[in-house]
Amino acid sequence: MKRSTIDLWVGIFVAIGIACVTFLSLKVANLTPQSSDTTYSLYADFDNIGGLKIKAPVKSSGVVVGRVTNIELDTKRYVAHVSLTLDSRYQFSHDTSAEILTAGLLGEQYIGLTQGGDPENLKSGDTITITSSALVLEQLISKFMLSFAEKGDSHSAHKTSAAQ
Amino acid sequence: MTELLASPLRKLGHLAINAIWRLGFASRFLFAILMNSGQCVLRFSLVIREVYFAGVLSLIIIIVSGLFVGMVLGLQGYNTLARFGSSDALGALVALSLLRELGPVLAALLFASRSGSAMTAEIGLMKTTEQLDAMSVMAVNPIARVVAPRFWAGVLSMPVLAALFNVMGIFGGYLVGVVMIGLDEGTYWSQMRNSVDFHNDIVNGLIKSLVFGVAVTLIAVFEGYDATPTAAGVSSATTRTVVTSALVILALDFILTAFMF
């Protein structure tokens, strides 16, 4: 069997294919090999998670430190039980607070961690106790409308008492 | 009077039965190709030769069309996104629409018209000039010697071409968005990375292109093998390859998308 120019061209073709898939995986999908032993998991309970989804980022000061791995409803207390996987390079103190934030006005929701002052750090499997729920736009509007209506009521009541 | 009514009905029935007959024959043909693929592994140079004709010679059309599709996506996407003040998401838009839909589908359509039609014409002409019969007489199975290498070459080339189409499209979007319009380069790539998932988008896109490769190549070799052995028969078989491939690609795309996303 002798080598021919067709073999060379097909070799180039296959090399292009491999290069393209590698480019797509590394540059476009950001697929970086991750070993599981460099992460640890934490839990956090929220009254309302809004639109938080699995695989949403966990950020601290805007830096991505981990991902949301699981969300389920705790049927004893009826709160959302969220599992987080954090990079073990980033350790957080025992009184770290977690809140659900939104990137931009209509962007995706993520969990923001704020470091506390406790010298003792959270260990794998611990639960973050200080949490604040997601802002749900409907609740916000209804609260605003309610306070507006109350103000209007007290205003009119004041007026009628003044008239008497 | 009854004859006047019955004759179109009879024609309709004949068409339907013919279509089902061809579908059954195509399935049996696919089975025959798979059963006769052993020789392709033993004589891999046959497949390599066909990869050259089906894949390597399609590189130019794939590169140029991928580039232009990406550039059009960049322009149109920018115009629409800028209206909502979110032109930063251009990278994500270009990458997702290419990886999920446009890359596999357009590459398969181009592949069908560039290589599929050539395969049909080649096999059809071999049948017309009785080369296939001559092979049978010499105890060479034409399916193993002629059809199977072309089939596997098409199936192997399709994902490579689709991946190349995606890369060229993303590069085209980059040319328009970053170089021409002047969006931030870092934002283009980071938005893309944030929204593209390896398994969901890239692997599913490759699976799509593999399925399209099987469908297009099977249609091409089947139409060639089944062609009426005349000049007009080969020409209508070539037309049928392109038309049927296009319809099957789009229909399969809908089904696959419904399953995947």
How would you describe what is shown here?
The complex is a heterodimer of chains A (164) and B (261). Helices cover 31% and strands 30% of the residues of chain A. With 164 residues, chain A is an alpha/beta fold. Chain A folds into two domains: 1-33; 36-140, no CATH class. In chain A, strands 7-1-4-3-2-6-5-8 form an eight-stranded mixed β-sheet, with no helix packed on it. Chain A is elongated, with a radius of gyration of 26 Å. By secondary structure, chain B is mostly helical. Chain B has one domain (36-260). Helices cover 89% and strands 0% of the residues of chain B. Chain B contains ten helices and no strands. Chain B starts with a helix and ends with a helix. The model of chain B has no long low-confidence stretch (mean pLDDT 92). Chain A binds chain B through residues 1, 6-7, 9-10, 12-14, 16-17, 20-21, 23-25, 27-31, and chain B through 45, 48-49, 51-52, 55-56, 59, 95, 99, 157, 159-160, 163-164, 166-167, 170, 189, 192-194, 196-198, 201-202, 206.
Radius of gyration of chain A: 26 Å
DSSP helical segment count of chain B: 10
Question: Largest sheet of chain A, if any?
Answer: 8 strands, mixed
By oligomeric state, this entry counts as heterodimer
Counted by DSSP, the helix tally of chain A is 2
Number of strands of chain A: 8
Domain count of chain A, please report it: 2
Give the chain pair forming the largest contact, with residue counts.
Answer: A-B, 20 and 28 residues
Return the average pLDDT of chain A rounded to an integer: 82
Shape of chain B: globular
Mean pLDDT of chain B: 92
